[in-house]
Amino acid sequence: MIHRLLMDGLPQTMTKPRNVAQEELERRRLAWYYNHLLKTVLQGETAPTLERELYDQWRIESEDALSFMLIQTREQSPLLQKQVQESLCLSWDQLFTDSAGRLLVILKAPQAVDAAGEQLYSRLASVWPSVLIAISPVMRGRGSIHALYASALKLLLQKQYEAGSGFISGGRRSAAVAELTLEDDVHLEAARIEKHERELFVRELEQVLRLTKKGVPDVVMIRLRISMLELEVCSRITQLGGDGAPLLERLRYRTGSLEELSTYRTLKAYGLTLYDEAAVLLDSLHEGKESSPVEQAISRIDQEYRSGLQLQELARAVHVNPNYLGYIIKRRVGVSFKAYIHSRRIEEAKRLLRHTGSSIHQIAMEVGYSNADYFIRMFKRTTGLLPTVYRQQ
């Protein structure tokens, strides 16, 4: 057995059952309850009473050293859970699952946790070659649940990005260096955008797009890599007093959702559009022009495209000539004022067709078309499909 590093078993708090079957039923009920409680906390519920109940159950005091272990395979199974439980000598209240189905182990006083993690990985990899195990750095005491989980998840995603499977620990220098290298890459690419170093950015983007796994493009990891760049760009925008959300909305309306892209061409277009949009916004923020007429106008379009917004009305609101506003909007987004409004409406309609059961007439009205027949013509002109056909795909 792997050396027991984990939490000591708790005193029996259940009413003594009449037989083994009742004992097992009660154990499962409590295990489900505390797993649900932990998921609730990890998903953002900050009620102190919930966290206190978890800490009391785990017998964690303010100075106790803690670490989280996350275990992921392509296909979770009861056999995996049993193997982990037996290998680490876990009791019922020490092994959980997160909302994505990963196994989550709470480690208390984890002095030799790296050795245990490596041994566990060796055992599991013989059955599940794709297994990933990540162990967070050690933190102390109550109030560290979110930080421990976020750290373990970040390490796991990093290892998945770099190798697809394996073991990684936040307590090791090598792991920290690898994490730093990955973060440095993202910082560097964001800096390319901020400094208008487009040629270098394109070269680095193309290297990301060539990521492979077993000789084929690793689309999941490419998407993950681009999404990390998005987060870094939005962080810089926020630091300058701006808002990255409208930028990401425009990006998705122009190129589609990142999760839906799967080819070299479409992913490259997404990355380049991110560069173009972010470079303009970062420039305006650096120059103190985040309230420039074109930014005000586009922000208002993004909020009011469902209404009957007119160019003349918008020009009066931002205090510029309508013809000039139409010209700078086209330079900014690549299409005319009217075409941009139509594109926003059609993209919203596509989202509603995918995710709601609303009728075609209802969707037409919701996105800003008072005539359903006109909406259908515009939808087909834009997408090449009738709304009903698009919904069925």
From TrEMBL:
<keyword id="KW-0238">DNA-binding</keyword>
<dbReference type="InterPro" id="IPR020449">
    <property type="entry name" value="Tscrpt_reg_AraC-type_HTH"/>
</dbReference>
<feature type="domain" description="HTH araC/xylS-type">
    <location>
        <begin position="295"/>
        <end position="393"/>
    </location>
</feature>
<dbReference type="InterPro" id="IPR018060">
    <property type="entry name" value="HTH_AraC"/>
</dbReference>
<dbReference type="GO" id="GO:0003700">
    <property type="term" value="F:DNA-binding transcription factor activity"/>
</dbReference>
<dbReference type="GO" id="GO:0043565">
    <property type="term" value="F:sequence-specific DNA binding"/>
</dbReference>
<keyword id="KW-0805">Transcription regulation</keyword>
<dbReference type="InterPro" id="IPR009057">
    <property type="entry name" value="Homeodomain-like_sf"/>
</dbReference>
<protein>
    <submittedName>
        <fullName>Chemotaxis protein CheY</fullName>
    </submittedName>
</protein>
<dbReference type="Pfam" id="PF12833">
    <property type="entry name" value="HTH_18"/>
</dbReference>
<keyword id="KW-0804">Transcription</keyword>
<dbReference type="InterPro" id="IPR018062">
    <property type="entry name" value="HTH_AraC-typ_CS"/>
</dbReference>
